[in-house]
Design brief:
Layout: E1 11-12, E2 21-22, H1 25-30, H2 34-84, H3 91-94, H4 101-121, H5 136-143, H6 145-148, H7 156-159, E3 162-169, E4 177-184, E5 194-202, E6 217-222, E7 236-244, E8 251-259, H8 280-300, H9 304-309, H10 311-335
Length: 360
């Protein structure tokens, strides 16, 4: 086999000794004896049945997620109350022993000494304790690349009013979906207390391509109408344009509203085409939207505090570096093939991916 061929390419040895040539699966199947081909068709029917059973499995997983979401919710409600300052955690609830405890204690000592020195220089007025954890969600948005790419400067004052993000799963008997709920405190930008984004899913093999089934997938999403206060809609901007009358030559200035980059465009998504026909830009935009929705559901909401502190980001970066190092090693192995005759190592062997990275 040609070493430059990709893993998806298949070749058939030519009995006449000519150069190997790629062969697609349909051609390979057509070359089988009729009785063997007949049995292969029987195996394919069994495979479709397996895909249908797998689809039912994922439907039950969805029900299990919904059940456990109800168990998580009281903890997430307590998180919201602490973040917003509605409750103050007890001393016992605040006990936490970190691996960096000694480092933190040393930093605290340095802070105390600096505070004493400052107090000696001038009498400072005591600052009022901040309420809850200020800018909790905004800090997360600014820290996560996927979200910070959507974030604009004019979005930040609005997201300071974000109290909580919740995930709600569809009820039993309803089409599979999940809803992201963004809860806001009263603010001067819009009247909505909650902004929602629904992600519709399916867990069934495609009739035209059943073997491509790998579990539930997001197939569409639906946002909500934001009731903006007058002049506060950050998803549009007003521009002025001069127009000259062709006959009289007079000039007038007109104003018009045009779309503006904003995180809040997230609630007005591109709609999936019923016939599946979409231009490349729309397909990319929709795929990115699905990825962001999945990331909110699987990572941001369940592990919010770790994204706030940056610990989850460190884990992500460590994983990426490890992947890169493995890739470098594979490259080196390929370059050193001439010196290594053991044949025990296959540099093209695919590395297993973590389950949490699988796109649903």
């Amino acid at each position: 086999m040609d070493a430059n061929k990709g893993k998806g390419d298949h070749v058939l040895q030519n009995p006449g000794g000519q150069m190997d040539r790629p062969v697609n699966f349909h051609f390979l199947e057509s070359m089988l004896p009729k009785v063997v081909k007949r049995r292969v068709h029987a195996l394919k029917r069994l495979q479709v049945q397996c895909a249908n059973i797998e689809a039912k499995f994922y439907e039950e997983v969805h029900e299990l997620e919904r059940k456990y979401a109800a168990l998580y919710q009281p903890l997430f409600d307590k998180r919201r109350d602490i973040v917003t300052g509605a409750v103050e955690p007890t001393d016992e609830e605040c006990e936490w022993h970190s691996d960096r405890e000694e480092e933190e204690e040393l930093a605290e000592e340095v802070k105390e000494k600096a505070a004493i020195e400052d107090a000696k220089k001038e009498e400072a007025t005591p600052e009022e304790d901040p309420k809850g954890i200020p800018e909790f969600w905004l800090t997360i948005f600014k820290s996560v690349d996927m979200l910070s790419d959507m974030l604009q400067e004019h979005d930040e004052p609005i997201l300071k009013h974000l109290k909580d993000i919740q995930v709600k799963f569809s009820e039993p008997g309803q089409p599979m979906s999940f809803t992201l709920e963004f809860h806001f405190e009263p603010n001067g930008y819009f009247n909505n207390a909650v902004l929602t984004k629904v992600y519709k899913m399916k867990s069934e093999p495609d009739a035209s391509d059943p073997f491509s089934f790998e579990g539930p997938e997001i197939i569409d999403c639906e946002g909500c109408q934001i009731d903006w206060h007058k002049g506060k809609d950050v998803t549009v901007k007003t521009i002025k344009k001069k127009q000259k009358h062709k006959g009289r030559g007079t000039v007038r200035t007109v104003t018009k509203q045009v779309p503006n980059d904003s995180f809040f465009n997230f609630f007005n998504p591109v709609k999936a085409s019923p016939d599946g026909e979409m231009d490349e830009d729309s397909e990319f935009t929709l795929a990115t939207d699905f990825e962001i929705g999945h990331f909110f559901r699987e990572r941001i909401v369940p592990r919010a505090v770790l994204y706030f502190t940056g610990e989850a980001l460190e884990d992500d970066e460590s994983f990426e570096e490890e992947e890169l190092e493995e890739g470098d090693e594979e490259e080196q192995d390929e370059e050193g093939d001439d010196d290594d005759d053991d044949g025990d190592c296959d540099p093209k062997k695919e590395q297993p991916q973590p389950a949490e990275c699988k796109q649903q």
